Amino acid sequence: MDDGSAETAALIGSSSEDVRSHLDGRNGAAEFKVYKRRWFILFVLCLLNCSNAMAWLTFAPVADQTAQYLQVSLNLVNWLSLVYVLVAIFFSFITTWVLDTLGLRFSLIMGSWLNMLGSVLRFVGVLSCIPERAVFPMVMGGQSLCAFAQPLVIFAPTKLAALWFPDHQRATANMMASMANTVGLLFANIFSPMIISYTNNFFMLLFIYAIPATVACFLATVGIRERVPPTPPSASVVTSSSEPFLQGVKLLLTNKAYMVLLVCFGSGIGIFTCFSTLLEQILCVKGYSNDFAGLCGAVSIVFGVLGAFLLGLYVDKTKNFTEVTKINMCLTSVGCSVFAVVSQLSEQKFIIGAVCTWFGLFGYSVYPIAMELGVECSYPVGEATSSGLIFVSGQIQAALYLLLLQALATPIEDSSVSVCATGADANLSWTVPVLVMAGLCALGTCCFVGFFHTDYRRLRAEAAASPKTVTDQSTGGDTWANSTDA
Which residues neighbour 335 within 8 Å (Cβ) at sequence distance 6 or greater? Predict the structure, then answer.
């Protein structure tokens, strides 16, 4: 370990007063550094997050064709997506400990290998030499390995942003890494229907999706060499893991503001999981093709990424985490309510597309901001722990919501406009489920707006540390001064 890493490790577990005393004692001025290799690690995490999300939603946009090809029911096809939710619920607590204890490098490499092996197993499972009875179990096995990788990579953005980026780039870095997951959902919504429509070949679909997973695994294994940067980019990094994991969880569970965010924003994550998983099934009953459903999902994601980019830049400058999250959640609730109505209409492609755009613009885009808000209101608890518990809450609620919504869907007799490929078992009325989904979204939003209030603890700790300069090693000089006072 070099001197910088030893110094950082020595400060982990210190209080804010200890850090401030240390910083003030180094020739009267604290100097933090950022390194250009932070962008490579960010790229690897983005690619890994994107490929894992593609694996998650591979089958949802073509659920009816998948049921036919694998010769299973539509409910079993839904389990190919739902397995991500269940694995996250039971594996996420271990993952948060791994990230905050064993470090970012170990987590990314382990996640990349699980993701790659799962992707490979999926396309091996549909080879012609595989016995018919083993096809679905192998595909599900590969999907499960990818699901185990998801918490390792989806919890990492806040940790990466805190360890490698200065305070005025944290929200942007977190946005890029988090939105890569959303871009993966976009690619799945576009490419799954496209590939199946043109080739009707699931082997080709799964082989193509395994390529980015393999590339990400190679880059992570070979290219990420350091657990932490030699010199921290900001004062907060030296205390970001100051609380032991179990003690950190206890602090979070007694933090009123964090618990409101945990439940209410977790509900929002659950709603979007339901939206992504069930969109094709909701629309096909009303005569909308898989291509159109995939386009709706893609448009919502494109505008979600655009919104996240703009919000990341705005919040990096203003630090208005709470205001942005509350406004976006309100607008998302409006979009969800409108979707519940228009999704039950036939021949209304323009309106449905516009509502999905609105839904994505304000719903998807707020995810990285809310995760940063979770870190701010729970500091000095480790970033992976605070982000991970929110995600676990979202996955638990997603599992409950999916089971509830599917139970509320009832068979319909008049299915003359339906284009669902699997026939009668797919001709379900989703009127009640989508109204319930809108109600749950509105309830979570109202509770969050009314009860969430917090101080920005991490920003306050950094202001107390009063760093003088941040040196950018990619340019070889001091790039900005007193950055945490911005």
Answer: 355, 358, 359, 362, 363
